[in-house]
Amino acid sequence: MVSTLFDLSHQTGNQRTFAPELVRSIGMGPIALGEIIDPLLEYYELFGDEKARILGVGLAYYCVDASTGFFDENGDVAGDQLYRSGISVLSGAMRAARLTQDAALFARGKQIHDRLSSYVTGYGSTPCTEPACSNMELVYSAIHLAETVDPSYYEQIDRYVRNQTTEAQFLTKNEWKRELAHEGRITGEEFRWVFGEYPDTLDILPYDYYGDDVLDKSEGGFLWTDFSEHRFVPASLMLCCSGHAMRSFHLVAEKMICPTIRGFDVNFHYSFENEYAELISYEPFEGKFTVIPEQDTQEIRVRIPAYWDKEQLHVYSEQGEVQAKTEGNYVVIRNAEKGQEIQLLYPLESHITEENVFRLADHVPCLQFKVRVEWRGNTVMRLLDHCSDNPKMIYKHRSKDAIYGGKPMKISGRINW
Q: Whole-prediction pTM value?
């Protein structure tokens, strides 16, 4: 496949691309060409295939160049390109920049990331209303930024995954109400979008067409979601939504505990367990985080989120308070023993932010309204504006009684979301 793609493409300077007629035929729009950059570079790193490197890096230069018409000089998606497709270029471009050590390419990727994420609410609601997919792209590119130039990008990753990505999961078909959902029909080979203002006297609806058990099969998957509700539109329960959501969870799990020469770093704060340590999070109900190393460890570094007050952060073990040091955005615990229960305690107060909600109009993100959001830490407790009683409503289960009775759940090998 790599060889075929390479032979179909051509090189111009440091850029590589395909014939215009081939690019125009891409289903998600020409800019979606950039989606293959990351897998090409992954293939190169695994197997050393030089064609994969040349093609992946060349496509990165091509896609982010303002003269190709995909992104403008400010980093916005240009012309009639899809926001969702544009955002899919990011992780590949950032990976190419790290591979080539090209500061200009890295700066351009960061500019595009910051611009496109400026249209996303603090908790991860995207203007394209496809957060499971678009958030994954932002999470992946933010990891590159957090690991290289600015650890504060871990905050963005945590807020998106902890909230909107998780809330996009379709947990029960009981929320499916035909009269509240957008509807569509299939006529012969033609698929036509039909929205909620049309009567539901259409001959064949998609869920009827695919069988009565489609909702049963969809439980546990992920779907389109706006700032406050699940969006049921034709094809909204998509395999790509579920795959991308699981990839976001995997990326966070992969970067949760990172080994170092003298021990390990903890970059995210969930209940989690692997060969290095067990982590227990008590958020959003209590400002408490526990680390239990699986072996004697010379140095444990725990990232301090923006909402932890360094001045009021205390570290305890069974022997009493630990005199830990702070280095940058990390608190450092030294000479920890196997099985030692290290507790980090900090105030966890509610606070309210005002978020801008954008929607796409003719492919352009436009400010629709503002919504006040109540948080505890990085967790959205509830939305204070533009709410409804629809069964599609999300962010309505943040209570001690609803989540594990207010007690942390220890899950070996997976994240407690």
A: 0.88
